[in-house]
Amino acid sequence: MQGIVFTGDRKLELREFAEPEPGVGEIVVKVAASGMCGTDLHHYRKSVAEAPAAYIAGHEPAGVVHSVGPGVLPAVAHVGQRVIVNHAAGCTACVQCRSGWPQMCTEAPLRMFGINDHGGHAPFLRVPAETVTPLDPGLSFEAGAAISCGTGTAWGALRRLGDIGGSPLVVFGQGPVGLSATMLAAARGASVIAVDIEPARLERARKFGATATVNSAVDEPVSAIRDLTGGAGSPLALETSGNSAAARAALESLALWGTGCFIGVGAKVELDVYGELRRQLTLMTSWTLSNFEQKKCADFILQNNLPVDDLFTHRWKLDQAEEAYQEFDRQVSGKGAFIFD
Fold it and tell me: What family does the entry list (predicted)?
């Protein structure tokens, strides 16, 4: 089979790999959709020396269980089952793994599919059976791929922010993760102010439920947000873009007693403790979500009939990989995915 490999300096190759066979406790998933995530871009853009060229890329797969190895109970995974694949695997025994957070594993080197182990940009993927979550037939494979990381990351951050219903929430960045946050937050009753520099993305944000938008390439975002909130600032802010200026604006846009969550990879946040002390802020980060929350996210999307499929503006075949990542690297469109027959 062929798989996409990042070779460094915005280059990639389609390389030949043996079709995987499941070992003890493992399954092989026939990939139906493999999403393209902003984290993939970080690896795509790495230098030749830093690129993970030994591994198949892609950490947002969804598909069907193709084969099952010894020791896998049917209740965990069975042939023909539609599944979402969590992109991290840990020791399975430590407190973090047992609580559904394999990416927080404390006892074993972390396996990250598409980064230090083979990922989903290929027709087949071998993973530990405990990494998969059932995908309801009411959701597409593309939706499952989004929930596996990008949309799931937005869900996890909103859960960290707590009770958002009825409250203003500023979402900085309206790429796939930010747009997912806008959609999910609006469905949970928040009044979303969407911030981005691309008019097309802001237009999409309104379609996904934003009550107001701010083009930060045109208007100073903190002032605009304060105007939209009666001068008080927003009680909640979520930074998804990974841009340091946006992260600073998210911090400055918070109201007294405000809560900010930062998930955009690449941003640097500086805090002047004396200057911010009297604002009584709560600041946090969020890293994807637990296996259990992944299921809750999927259930919420299904129950509320949310248009996750509309996050996708591009669907590609594997042999279009070079064009696909060049388009994604421009960061002006929506989400992309590789679709397999």
Answer: Belongs to the zinc-containing alcohol dehydrogenase family.
Q: How many domains would you assign to the chain?
A: 2
Given 285, 314, 329, which residue is the final one in a domain? 285
Residues 190 and 232 placed together within one structural domain of the fold = yes
pTM of full prediction above 0.85: yes
Tell me if 293 sits within 8 A of 152, measured CB to CB.
yes
**pLDDT 10s per residue in the chain (341 long)?**
999 999 999 999 999 999 999 999 999 999 999 999 988 998 999 999 888 778 999 999 999 999 999 999 999 999 999 999 999 999 999 999 999 999 999 999 999 999 999 999 999 999 999 999 999 999 999 999 999 999 999 999 999 999 999 999 999 999 999 999 999 999 999 999 999 999 999 999 999 999 999 999 999 999 999 999 999 999 999 999 999 999 999 999 999 999 999 999 889 998 899 989 999 999 999 999 999 999 999 999 999 999 999 999 999 999 999 999 999 998 888 899 999 98
Range of the domain at 250: 154-285
124 and 59 inside one domain: yes
Phi, psi of 74 (to 5 degrees): -55, -30
Give the dihedral of Cα atoms 114, 118, 121, 125; nearest 10 deg.
-130
Gyration radius (Cα) of the chain, Å: 20
8 Å CB contact between 178 and 241:
yes
271 and 167 fall within a common domain: yes
Domain CATH number, residue 217: 3.40.50.720
User: Same domain for 250 and 277?
Assistant: yes
Pair (11, 29) in one structural domain: yes
Closest CA to 259 of 226, 286, 287, 281: 281
Query: Which phi and psi (to 5°) does residue 262 adopt?
Result: -120, 120
